[in-house]
Design a protein that fits this description.
CATH architecture: Roll
Strand content: 25-35%
CATH topology: 3-methyladenine DNA Glycosylase, Chain A
Distance between the termini: 32 Å
Number of strands: 8
Radius of gyration: 15 Å
CATH superfamily: Methylpurine-DNA glycosylase (MPG)
Order of helices and strands: HEEEEEHHEEE
Structural class: alpha+beta
Number of domains: 1
CATH class: Alpha Beta
Largest sheet: 8 strands, antiparallel
Length: 189
DNA sequence: AGTGCGATTGACT
DNA sequence: GTCAATCGCACTA
């Protein structure tokens, strides 16, 4: 049974993630993702459907927001058919709109510190549990995916970051040479 | 009811 | 480079 999630994860590179709140609008170009696929021991869906990972089993295009390490939220885009379980983790954005608001949320001015890393993406975009399960193809969700706002560069592939199981899988995708991508030098080139 | 730990980050040596 | 912070969840009993 083929999985669509790696295709989605690669497709997301260059697309725009937009967040609308009472504070204003923030948006960024997605520059780094990771795919977590069915049968993947590193995936949150691997243990089966639970209250926590339920949104990963929604149809492709829904948000799965999880809380980790007692302090960070992370955003995934569900990537499979309903009931299958898989998603693309949004690991980094290049800020595009609402930069002052992102700076205020993050408590830093430096552009490359605003959304480089999944926890930072969530903080800069004010993403929390309230957005778990929303449809990212609907603007009324307050968080949605939009077309690219600029040409997209070469997309590189690498091993995933921060996991121990199935670490050898080449399921991380990123825009080559972009300074807003996380990881070590080797994983950014 | 208790336990162990995670798809991370930021502060510090 | 190393390490603490901090909490919800899955698992054991």
């Amino acid at each position: 049974m083929p999985s669509d999630t790696p295709v989605l994860a690669r497709w997301l590179i260059g697309k725009t993630l937009v967040r609308e709140t009472a504070q204003g609008r923030t948006a960024g170009t997605i520059v780094e993702t990771e795919a977590y696929v069915p049968g993947d021991a590193a995936a949150h869906a691997f243990i089966g459907r639970t209250a926590r990972n339920n949104s990963l089993f929604l149809p492709r295009g829904h948000a799965y927001v999880y809380f980790i390490y007692g302090m960070h939220f992370s955003l995934n885009v569900a990537g499979e058919r309903a009931g299958v379980g898989g998603g693309a983790l949004i690991r980094a954005l290049e800020p595009v709109e609402g930069i002052a608001l992102m700076q205020a949320r993050r408590g830093t001015q430096r552009l490359t510190d605003l959304a480089r890393g999944p926890g930072r993406v969530a903080e800069a975009m004010a993403i929390d549990r309230a957005l778990d399960g929303v449809d990212l193809c609907v603007r009324a969700s307050g968080l949605w995916l939009a077309d690219a706002v600029r040409p997209v560069g070469d997309v590189g592939t690498s091993v995933r970051i921060g996991i121990s199981k199935e670490a050898e899988r080449l399921l991380r995708f990123y825009e080559r040479g972009n300074p807003h991508v996380s990881g070590t030098r080797r994983l950014r080139m």
